[in-house]
Amino acid sequence: MQTPTDKHSRHERARLLVAIGVFSVLLWQTRIGAFALYPFTILATWFHEMGHGLAALASGAVFERLIIYPNGSGVAQLMLPADRFRVTDAIISASGPLGPAIAGGSLIVSSRSARATRIALAVLAAALAVSTLVWVRSLTGWLVLPPLAAVIAMIAWKWSVPVRHFAIQFLGVQAGISVWRQFDYLFSDAGVGAGQPSDTAAIAQVLFLPYWIWGAIISAATVAILWWSFRAAFRR
């Protein structure tokens, strides 16, 4: 039977995670904050570029390599078929900013049970390790991602249930909010590389509506995914 104390504790945990998420987004906008959150910056880039890469694989394209640069930016190098549908490009572009939100929401929901939490942590650690071996082709990725995988695996198998629950929720929030690490990126038409369009500009090029509307749509979808995952994780 649920007690008022249990309900209050869940609400307090949810508020704490929301506060951490907002604080992380704000901290990322500062030089000191970006330095302090550097491992999570690389993790955010990994989530983003893996979103592009996995969507490309699902569409029948080739995911050649993932490069993460020391400044925290990255690129998924893909080989796309010439006869692909235009909407395929839009889906691949949208999967970069939306993929992390879906993954983060799944991690948060997994915290509903101790068994699912451990499995989710183990899967995330394995995904980091395997993707590094298969696709990552940069020194920054090799130096940061395997230690992150090792820490997450240790949490999954060695630490207490409350720590695992908080860790999976924290990682889920970090994945979900990673789309706003560079807050203006979704609302810009320029990508990180010279002459490259942003993800939202790439969507606008093959579909309709301007890039800033697609930025608003992706932001709203991310908030909706996080809201749903919190409701699923913290309800009775």
Q: What would a concise description of this structure say?
A:
This protein is 71% helix and 6% strand. It contains 9 helices and 2 strands.
Written account of the structure:
It is a single chain. The chain has 236 residues and is mostly helical. The protein has one domain. It is 71% helix and 6% strand. The protein has a two-stranded antiparallel ribbon. Strand 1 and strand 2 form a beta hairpin. Helix 4 (86-110) packs across helix 8 and helix 5 (114-134) runs antiparallel to helix 6. It is globular, with a radius of gyration of 18 Å. Residues 1-5 have low confidence and may be disordered.
Low-confidence runs of at least 5 consecutive residues: 1-5
Name the overall outline: globular
State the separation between the terminal residues, measured CA to CA.
10 Å
The structure class reads mainly alpha
Q: What pattern of helices and strands is seen along the backbone?
A: HHHEEHHHHHH
Give the number of helices: 9
Q: Tell me the total number of β-strands.
A: 2
Number of domains: 1
Biggest beta-sheet profile? 2 strands, antiparallel
Helix content: over 70%
Q: Could you tell me the strand content as a percent range?
A: 5-15%
Provide the gyration radius in Å. 18 Å
How are strands sequenced across the largest beta sheet?
1-2
Mean pLDDT: 88
